[in-house]
Write a structure and sequence with these properties.
The complex is a heterodimer of chains A (373) and B (404).
Chain A: H1 13-24, H2 28-31, H3 33-40, H4 44-68, H5 74-116, H6 123-138, H7 142-154, H8 156-165, H9 184-193, H10 195-198, H11 204-211, H12 217-246, H13 248-252, H14 257-263, H15 275-305, H16 312-328, H17 332-372
Helix pairs in contact in A: 1-7, 1-12, 3-9, 4-9, 4-11, 4-12, 4-17, 5-6, 5-15, 5-16, 5-17, 6-15, 6-16, 7-15, 8-15, 14-15, 15-16
Chain B: H1 2-19, E1 31-41, E2 73-80, E3 94-101, H2 104-110, E4 118-120, E5 126-130, H3 131-136, H4 139-148, E6 157-161, H5 165-169, H6 179-185, H7 203-211, E7 217-224, E8 227-237, E9 240-245, H8 247-257, E10 263-268, E11 276-293, E12 296-312, H9 324-352, H10 360-368, H11 370-376, H12 380-383, E13 389-399
Parallel strand pairs in B: 1-4, 1-5, 5-6, 12-13
Antiparallel strand pairs in B: 1-2, 2-3, 7-8, 8-9, 10-11, 11-12
Helix pairs in contact in B: 4-7, 8-9, 10-11
Classes of the chains: A mainly alpha (373), B alpha/beta (404).
């Protein structure tokens, strides 16, 4: 029998950095800016930087935690840290983060595509189609998914950024002023709310066993810093251009300000018009790779938790649940409520569950060491 | 195993029916391209001063039963003709249909009763609103339908006309272009015609300014005896129409805001009264800066212009355009003319209309003096006309053309 060449037993740290980048950048670049700008106003750019630093710190903590348990993922070591029930709860919590993000992304994507591209198609059908494609990708082994992510990183992102940069033509630097003073409380709050943009970095807790042999923890932290640096630059580019083109007050009134920004671009002397369609065409693969990776992670978590050898049945099992979940978010208010809930759940996971795990694991190891001595 | 494969194949085939994209299929030949929209009062024909032949009256066969509200507006659409007609015949490229009612969306849908194909707004070029409508309704109410619909583009041109808007979309340009395209293109070179307020007056910017509760400017368009002319501007305080300004005021405003890219400044020659000369602007460096000293707010406008001497009328043998002294005298004369133009615009907009157009002064204060802005923003409308403005203009003639 031929070996499964796509079943990966290792990956390089730079591959992990690309996976983190690609998983983090998804639908939220179009879905999140309005609420962030409404909260942080002219300080939204500073919020993006604060968020980047904050979630990079959370990722570093996760890497430190994961390094303590080589060859294991959080699914295996959480029960040892928190006990069987506590560990199961942490694993459910961890999986819920991916699930809640995935259903929100499907909902948002369905809305945007049906409004701007296929106005007669029901969003449920768009979601179904995309779900089928993402599920097909998620049932592959990690090697395939990783290659797709690497391909998207170089192809889809360069197109997306290139199209997005055309909106600089309409940028009015004065709209970005005043840079100071800013409402510090709102900016810090905005920094926390950027979790929705950066979310996805939690995948390092699952992928660390594939990487740790290749590199020291210090180097991995540095490489991950490059990934977060790129994320900060990309998100800054989105937020700064939106404010520069629409102003803070203008952006607040629009459901998807990024699309209005790109829609206003007129390339003089060319036949290219309605650039939002080009942006959406580049955005769909970006969202696809985020969704496929997250669905794979969900299947992988279930597989490891139930000690099975194959993640595929779990992905297929989750497909109808994801579909129903995304359909249940049937209006903007419910979506925003779910968004806020997920954000707090994610923040609590990163800044309570992970540090607590780390402290408990130190304590347990020290206790074990004392016992031996 | 074979059974599972079969089920998988059937499931994939069934999925094709859902995701093949036929849902949104709209063939090109099944669309009626709307190129221009005209918005009038439904009963404009009842107004005095309008030619009865051109009067707009609610016609039963054009409209629909409306249980609530009244037949308030007339919406006219200019549609592109697909058939080219017989060879050699001088046929129009477009035709117009109209309807009366209160909701624009309802009127559009009811107009499908007059159109054999679906009405397609993706190529809409221009929206023309009659002054009569704007005298009764805020601009925000009128553009709401257009800003919401996903078919509309941000760069659709928006004009205001003192007459009936429908007569403009019925106009057939002598160049044989489609009317909507012709009307939209009139503003395309606004940066070279300083009598037209063309920058930031399209649908996207208009909606943006309305959202920001800024004062809006929209180009004025008029038709008389088959002559269509774009010039001057309709002025709005927030979304309320308050009147028109002429092209000279618009030129002054553009000089003040630095939004012109090229302009012609004509004035009398200082050495030969009665003879005109013209300066062609190539490049300008304009700075509108707010200053706050204690409780006093004032603005400075520093205009530096560089360009070409484009025309000197009169006896040129008496003048030496290579003489720096002579050129300097001309520069001073042009600078004085530009200053007078800016002062005129300032008087019209600030003193008479009391309108901070597109909230440029408020925006500068907010951007550069945010603490002062926080204190005065609620009283800005009262404070603005009282604020001193110091204007300085400097003109540099870099070239004199190909003749001495």
């Amino acid at each position: 029998m031929m070996a499964n060449l796509e079943a990966k037993s290792y990956m390089t740290p730079w591959q992990l950095a690309i996976v983190v980048f690609v998983t983090c950048v998804g639908a939220q670049i179009l879905l999140s800016p309005r609420s962030l700008i409404a909260d942080a106003e002219h300080g939204a750019g500073i919020s993006v930087v604060i968020g980047g630093v904050l979630f990079y710190s959370a990722t570093c903590l996760m890497l430190v935690l994961a390094k303590k348990y080589p060859d294991e993922t959080i699914v295996e070591y959480a029960p040892r840290i928190f006990g069987k029930i506590g560990g199961t709860l942490v694993v459910i919590w961890f999986n819920m983060l991916f699930f809640l993000q995935v259903i929100q992304i499907f909902y948002g994507m369905g809305k945007i595509i049906t409004f701007y591209m296929f106005d007669r198609t029901p969003p449920e059908v768009v979601i179904l189609a995309l779900l089928a494609v993402c599920a097909y990708c998620a049932v592959q082994d990690w090697g395939t998914i990783m290659r797709i992510q690497q391909f998207m990183f170089f192809v889809a992102y360069s197109i997306l950024i290139l199209v997005w940069l055309t909106s600089i033509l309409n940028l009015q630097p004065e709209n970005l002023l005043p840079l100071w003073p800013v409402n510090i409380k709102a900016v810090v709050g905005g920094g926390l709310s950027t979790w929705n943009m950066y979310a996805g970095y939690e995948c390092v807790l699952l992928l660390m066993p594939l990487v740790y042999r290749q590199v020291s923890l210090g180097s991995l932290i540095k490489i991950m810093g490059a990934s977060f640096g790129c994320l900060i630059v990309l998100f800054l580019l989105v937020i700064v251009i939106i404010i520069g083109v629409l102003t803070v007050d203008g952006a607040k009134n629009l459901l998807y300000p990024a699309l209005i920004v790109i829609r206003s671009v007129e390339l003089p002397g060319t036949f290219i018009e309605r650039l939002e369609n080009y942006l959406l065409i580049a955005w769909i693969p970006v969202v696809f790779d985020t969704l496929a990776a997250m669905m794979f992670f969900m299947g992988e978590i279930c597989m490891r938790h139930w000690r099975q050898a194959d993640h595929r049945p779990w992905v297929l099992f989750l497909v109808p649940i994801i579909y129903v979940g995304s359909i249940l978010l049937d209006n903007q208010q419910v979506y925003e409520m779910a968004n806020k809930f997920t954000m707090w759940l994610g923040l609590a996971f990163s800044f309570i569950a992970v540090p607590l795990s780390l402290s408990l694991s130190w304590w347990q190891k020290r206790k074990a060491g004392t016992g031996c001595g | 195993m074979a059974k599972r494969k079969l089920i998988g194949c059937v499931a994939l085939l069934l999925l094709c029916f859902l995701v093949a994209g036929c849902w949104d299929r709209r063939e090109l030949q099944d669309r009626n391209f709307v190129l221009a929209v005209a918005i009038d009062m439904a009963d404009d024909g009842l107004k005095l001063g309008i030619d009865p032949k051109e009067a707009l009256k609610v016609r039963e066969e054009e409209t629909f039963v409306q249980p609530d509200g009244r037949k308030r507006y007339r919406l006219s659409l200019q549609l592109l003709k697909f058939s080219s007609g017989e060879a050699g015949k001088d046929e129009a490229k477009t035709y117009a249909i109209s309807n009366t009612g209160e909701s624009f969306f309802e009127m559009v849908r009811d107009m499908l009763g007059q159109s054999s194909k679906s009405l397609w707004f993706e190529h809409l070029q221009v929206i023309i609103i009659s002054e009569a409508v704007l005298r009764q309704t805020g601009l925000a109410e009128i553009v709401d339908f257009f800003k919401r619909d996903s078919e509309m583009r941000s760069r659709i041109k928006v004009y205001v006309t003192p007459g009936t808007a429908r007569s403009l979309i019925e106009y057939q340009p002598p160049s044989k272009e489609a009317g909507g395209m012709f009307l939209a293109d009139l503003i395309r070179l606004h940066s070279r015609n300083n009598h037209i307020a063309g920058a930031r007056t399209d649908l996207g910017y208009t909606v943006q300014y309305l959202d920001l509760r800024s004062n809006v400017l929209l180009p004025r368009i008029e038709i008389a005896d088959k002559v269509v002319k774009l010039g001057g501007s309709a002025v709005f305080k927030k979304d309320k129409f308050i009147g028109y300004v002429d092209g000279y005021a618009i030129a002054g405003l553009k000089f003040m805001y630095g939004t012109e890219e090229s302009a012609i400044v004509a004035t009398e020659c200082p050495d030969h009264p009665g003879h005109q000369m013209a300066f062609e602007l190539f490049r300008d460096d304009t700075k509108l800066i707010p200053h706050v000293e204690g409780d006093t707010i004032y603005f400075t406008v520093d205009i530096n212009m560089y360009g070409n001497l484009g025309e000197i009328q009169g006896d040129i043998s008496q003048d030496d355009t290579l003489d720096p002294q002579y050129i300097h005298r001309l520069e001073i004369a042009f600078a004085e003319e530009i200053k007078q133009n800016v002062l005129y615009a300032d008087r019209v907009f600030r003193k008479e209309m009391q309108v901070d157009t597109i909230s440029r002064f408020a925006g500068k204060l907010k951007a550069y003096e945010p603490e002062t802005w926080a204190k005065v923003q609620d009283q800005w409308d009262e404070i603005y006309p009282m604020i001193p403005i110091i204007i300085s203009v400097n003109v540099t003639i870099q070239k004199v053309g190909s003749h001495k």
